[in-house]
Amino acid sequence: MTRVGLEPIIRAHPLFAGLDEAFCQLVCGCATNVRFRACDYLFHEGEAADRLFLLRQGRVALETPTPGQGAIVFRTLDAGELVGLSWLVPPYRWAYDARALEPVRAIAMDAVCLRRKCEQDHDLGFEVMKRVVPILIERLHGTQRQMLDVYGSPS
Amino acid sequence: MAARPDRAPPGDPLTPRVVRVLKRRRDAPRTVTLDIAADDATAFQPGQFNMLTAFGVGEVPISLSGDPADTNRRVHTIRAVGPVSSALARLAPGDALGLRGPFGSGWPMAAAHGHDVVLIAGGLGLAPLRPALYRLLAERQRYGTIALLYGTRSPDEILFRRELAAWQRRHDIRIGVTVDHAPSDWTGHVGVVTRLIPGLALDPANTLAFVCGPEVMMRFTIAALKEAGLGDAAIHLSLERNMKCAVGLCGHCQFGPVFVCRDGPVLCHDRLGGLLGLKEL
Ligand SMILES: Cc1cc2nc3c(=O)[nH]c(=O)nc-3n(C[C@H](O)[C@H](O)[C@H](O)COP(=O)(O)OP(=O)(O)OC[C@H]3O[C@@H](n4cnc5c(N)ncnc54)[C@H](O)[C@@H]3O)c2cc1C
Ligand code: FES
């Protein structure tokens, strides 16, 4: 798919909905269309966080391998959500694995390209931050609540 | 307003009647569902509870979790957390226990006629909501859209699995199940239950929410429902407090201005003001 063809898809994604035309062009310049089969990994813990994914279709599990127990899934993400936040801040390394639970279609953004454009144009950078930070906060709050283990039985 | 019982429990409400277990099912780790032979045909309202006695151990409040239309049995889902609940959870078919009730207010089923209804359950909170769901489905045409969102700890703690699967296959109810964490073979949602609310695209002017679960979960759920546009008067909660008499005499269950046994356990959020978030009362 051409980058021109990607523009309406990126505009329709909640992360970039309503983005200014000029910014959208810049963002689209970093984007490619990708697909994963069920069980494919989008990325692994420890690898360079050089991409982010705007999910268009399918469910992705964020998981962490634990000794003796296999992987533990601590969050799933669905169409309309953003997979990957570690590309935002150094050392730009994934902190967990992301695995497709179903066939997945997504827009992959080259994180190096997006970071460079945000650095060059701080208005774009601020716009991207305003859109990503609420997601970060929502994930943080969700994780805090899960950690409270409110459904757990008293021991 | 939460619905009031149609009539007082039969006989002396302070004296347990002796009843027997008909059937016992294990629903989740440390959680069983007991079918108890009904000793009368008293109807109960979804959301009400009975006081159950494990003889020689003690008495605790336990919600009714079965179908109100089934007058032959009283169904209770019990998680073993301490001496009394553990003794009750160990009962086998034929064993005797004490029962008094039903007590308290129920979910506002009649007030929900003509409205969309969303049930939001956390953990064992699905048990007191199940009778409401039976009624909603039995009188499906009286209600708008119906949704059940259920959050629990992990896939092996999911209650009423077979029924949930059957409800998921129906086209006239939306079911969302999520867990806090899961092994890698789980393909459902993982995350907090409030994340499922935006996907329902609720019509805030026409929706009633029935919420039951641990208090922390209910607080977050109320915040998320309000963010979706629901007012306090549209949000109904089931509260838990320690109980003794269950008939409004002893004050054990007092929560601010309400006695949970008599005025609740189902209460409209507009009656509670900000009480739910307070550390101490
Ligand atoms: C209106 C109402 C309806 C209820 N419905 C049900 C039901 O359908 N099924 C059910 O299993 N329980 C239900 N409960 C809770 C149940 O009454 C308590 O679990 C029970 O009283 C515990 O008594 P116990 O002697 O077994 O344990 P206790 O010795 O009283 O408590 C043992 C441990 O469990 C903790 N604990 C006590 N109650 C709870 C609780 N509700 N949740 C988590 N931890 C708790 C205590 O803090 C303590 O650490 C309901 C309570 C109320 C007020
Ligand atoms: S338990 Fe006695 S007043 Fe509520």
UniProtKB/TrEMBL annotation, chain A:
Domain of life the protein comes from: Bacteria
Ranges where the Cyclic nucleotide-binding domain occurs: 15-116
InterPro entries registered for this protein in UniProt: cNMP-bd_dom, cNMP-bd_dom_sf, RmlC-like_jellyroll
Xref: Pfam families: cNMP_binding (PF00027)
CDD domains: CAP_ED
Name of this protein: Cyclic nucleotide-binding domain-containing protein
Native species: Modicisalibacter tunisiensis
Lineage, uppermost ranks: Bacteria, Pseudomonadati, Pseudomonadota, Gammaproteobacteria, Oceanospirillales
Automatic annotation (TrEMBL), chain B:
Residue spans crossing the bilayer: none
Pfam families found in the cross-reference section: DHODB_Fe-S_bind (PF10418), NAD_binding_1 (PF00175)
PROSITE patterns: FAD_FR (PS51384)
Start and end residues of each FAD-binding FR-type domain: 14-109
Source organism superkingdom: Bacteria
InterPro entries: Cyt_c3_hydrogenase_gsu, Dihydroorotate_DH_Fe-S-bd, FAD-bd_FR_type, Flavoprot_Pyr_Nucl_cyt_Rdtase, FNR_nucleotide-bd, OxRdtase_FAD/NAD-bd, PyrK_electron_transfer, Riboflavin_synthase-like_b-brl
Record-linked Gene3D superfamilies: Nucleotide-binding domain of ferredoxin-NADP reductase (FNR) module, Translation factors
Protein name, per record: FAD/NAD(P)-binding protein
Source organism: Modicisalibacter tunisiensis
